[in-house]
From TrEMBL:
The protein's enzyme class: ligase
Positions of transmembrane segments: 158-180
Protein name: Acetyl-coenzyme A synthetase
Gene this chain is encoded by: acs
Protein's job: Catalyzes the conversion of acetate into acetyl-CoA (AcCoA), an essential intermediate at the junction of anabolic and catabolic pathways. AcsA undergoes a two-step reaction. In the first half reaction, AcsA combines acetate with ATP to form acetyl-adenylate (AcAMP) intermediate. In the second half reaction, it can then transfer the acetyl group from AcAMP to the sulfhydryl group of CoA, forming the product AcCoA.
């Protein structure tokens, strides 16, 4: 970054004016915001020179760099080697033994952190709970004993389908205590999605609750589990039910037990299992470009180290911080940055149940004021929604406790960045725009808040140990400002260790496009300062309000409907959600199309995948545009969905009249 370019923050008015016209600003954005001297002075990494020195060491001497960082974990047995790599299999901290729950809990019980808040929780109806490290430790040990009592053993898979309540974190940590592998499923997924996942990972036990609250409604979690397990053709032997909403639920004799009842049989003593550095820690399902969601597997030592390290360097978390990550625990962000990272570091992590606009549009700001939140991490889609709802919701609250802001999930447009900076952060808080993925386990490209001058819309530079390149189809690095594919050329501690049960797919999906390099599925470009601008997914994965959704998954849900002959799903730019889901559908002989069928198909997708996948629009046509070899021309469909004039080569199109039809088709 040349000094000349680093300007002072633009005054509010000028900034607002300048940021009008979104796509053009991304390419020409040149506002630079340096961290304040005050922030840098206190930060762990206080200058670009320091960042560069550390980064270089992490790349050239990973053994030394990560060996030093790993001293900050509590080991049951020291490792003998930092890393072993034979593509695509990585082993970190070979031979070491440790336990995640011990690192997140027990080690904080000596010294002042014992009585410090580990989790602060606010439920949607307004209940509040604080669990100190000591209390959380006790609850985790008790529940780990409940799992043992229900015959859960090391290596068994445990599915967790809970609302945003402390019990979700308790259940996760209890699994880690005994070496069971958890797989958390987001509450917005349907019974069918639960069933698919249960079967794929071979879960023996499901932990759920009667229901959960969202925007004043009760989500019928237990009923979804019942539907998923109907027929008894799954490996699930036991369902543990937490009482949250108090509504009536079916209890299946011989299978279902109540969480609170089970606790009556156990004590609070549960030694932490001795686990290998590479012991599987959790499986988290995420969407890919083909077929069913993939069970991304993470393992123990490397994952925990990266989660802790990024909380330390990227969020700069300290003993007196009140840190709030608004993500749901069902996503990787909730895993790494609500539970494991902050707790491993001994920080205070806030968790909330509900939605940003319930009971009113100021839920976030109210919580920040009430708990004096200092470090706040949320998604661009939420920021854009708040912008739309108006500044008055924010103005009602004192947000002066905030000192650092973060975003994740999708590219943040400069307007939203500026609003976040000026309105939420009072122009004084650094913003860390963190690029990463379920597969990467933790932050990969991100500013270091006391060091990196930021620019609205870029995730800036790689984190320690992350060797990023932007390449063309042949693997050659592209030039400045040219778009290419984002790859990572070296293994990093928290990288995925595989796709559950599918070694071949693991290699093919991530390591075969450029043999030996990890291909992320995102497009990016580098600017003159070397900053990385993420363009977004270049595969058939959509990013809808920060949630990943495979077009193939939605297509397969659509064609499972009896009226549908063929379907193609594409994303369309959406101001709020980043992308909206547009479905092009052809129907079977004799089926009448129209709004009723469009609504029915939307409902059908919700039922099959879950509310997270609800299509924005369903369009009918007599045929889909295909090449002569029968491939659906998605490029055309994307243009049609976005209402653009069809550009580019259509010479391979089988039937040109199809385009005109599709462009004319709407829901009505
Ligand atoms: C996108 C979420 C731009 C990206 C942690 C990636 C981002 C996908 C950013 C992973 C960001 C995430 N800027 N794009 N700061 N963060 N993405 O697995 O396309 O749910 O591939 O992990 O989200 O989504 P996932």
């Amino acid at each position: 970054m040349s000094k000349k370019k680093a300007a002072k923050p633009a005054p509010k008015k000028a900034a607002a004016k300048k940021s009008a016209g979104k796509s053009q600003t991304i390419m020409t954005e040149n506002r630079v915001f340096k961290p304040s001297a005050e922030f840098s002075k206190k930060a762990r990494v206080g200058s670009m020179a320091e960042y560069r020195r550390m980064y270089e060491e992490s790349i050239k001497h990973p053994d030394k760099f990560f060996g030093r960082e790993a001293k900050e974990l509590q080991w049951q047995k020291p490792y003998t080697k930092v890393m072993e790599w034979k593509c695509p299999n990585a082993k970190w901290f070979v031979g070491g033994k440790l336990n995640v729950s011990e690192n997140c809990l027990d080690r904080h019980l000596v010294g002042p952190n014992k009585t410090k808040a580990a989790l602060i929780w606010e439920g949607e109806p307004g209940e509040k709970r604080v669990l100190t490290y000591q209390q959380l430790h006790r609850e985790v040990c008790r529940f780990a004993n409940v799992l043992k009592r229900n015959k859960v053993k090391k290596g068994d898979r445990v599915m967790i389908y809970l609302p945003m309540i402390p019990e979700a974190a308790i259940a996760m940590l209890a699994c880690t205590r005994i070496g069971a592998i958890h797989s958390v499923v987001f509450g917005g997924f349907s019974a069918e999605s639960i069933k698919d996942r249960v079967l794929d990972c071979g879960a023996k036990i499901v932990i759920t609750s009667d229901g959960g609250y969202r925007r004043g409604a009760v989500v019928p979690l237990k009923k979804n589990v019942d539907d998923a397990l109907k027929g008894g053709d799954t490996p699930v032997e036991t369902v543990i039910v937490f009482r949250r909403t108090g509504q009536d639920v079916h209890i299946e004799e011989g299978r279902d037990v109540w969480w609170h009842r089970e606790l009556e049989y156990v004590d609070a003593h549960c030694p932490a299992a001795v686990l290998d550095s590479e012991a599987p820690l959790f499986i988290l399902y995420t969407s890919g470009s083909t077929g069913k969601p993939k069970g991304i597997l993470h393992s123990t030592a490397g994952y925990l180290l990266h989660a802790q390290m990024t909380c330390k360097y990227v969020f700069d978390l300290r003993d007196d911080d009140v840190y709030w990550c608004t993500a749901d625990v069902g996503w990787v962000t909730g895993h790494s940055y609500m539970v494991y990272g902050p707790l491993s570091l001994g920080a205070t992590s806030l968790m909330y149940e509900g939605a940003p606009n319930w009971p009113e549009n100021d839920r976030f700001w109210k919580i920040i004021e009430e708990y004096a939140v200092t470090v706040f991490y949320t998604a661009p889609t939420a920021i854009r929604a708040f912008m739309k709802w108006g500044d008055e919701w924010l103005k009602k609250h004192d947000l002066s406790s905030l000192r650092l802001l973060g975003t994740v999930g999708e590219p943040i447009n400069p307007e939203a960045w500026m609003w976040y900076h000026t309105q939420v952060g009072s122009s004084k808080c650094p913003i860390v725009d963190t690029w990463w993925q379920t597969e990467t386990g933790g932050h990969m490209i991100t500013p270091i808040p006391g060091a990196t001058p930021t620019k609205p819309g870029t995730a800036t530079l790689p984190f320690f140990g992350v060797d990023v390149a932007i390449v063309d189809d042949l693997g050659k690095e592209v030039g400045k400002d040219e778009q290419g594919k984002l790859v990572i050329r070296k293994p990093w501690p928290s990288m995925l260790r595989g796709i559950w049960g599918d070694k071949k797919r693991y290699h093919e999906t991530y390591w075969s496009e450029f043999e030996g390099w990890y291909f992320a599925g995102d497009g990016a470009r580098r600017d003159k300062d070397g900053y990385i601008w993420i363009i977004g997914r270049i595969d058939d994965v959509l990013n809808v309000a920060g949630h990943r959704l495979g077009t193939a998954e939605v297509e397969s849900a659509l064609v499972s409907h009896p009226s549908v002959a063929e379907a193609a799903v594409v994303g369309r730019p959406d101001e709020m959600k980043g992308q909206g889901v547009v479905c092009f559908v052809t129907v079977k002989e004799g089926i009448t199309t129209g709004r009723d069928l469009a609504d029915e198909l939307k409902k059908h997708v919700r039922k099959v995948i879950g509310p997270v996948a609800t299509p924005d629009e369903v369009r009918f046509a007599a045929a889909l545009p295909k090449t002569r070899s029968g491939k659906i021309m998605r490029r055309l469909l994307k243009q049609i969905a976005a209402g653009e004039v069809i550009k580019g080569d259509t010479t391979t199109l089988e039937d040109l009249s199809v385009i005109a039809q599709l462009a004319a088709s709407g829901e009505d």
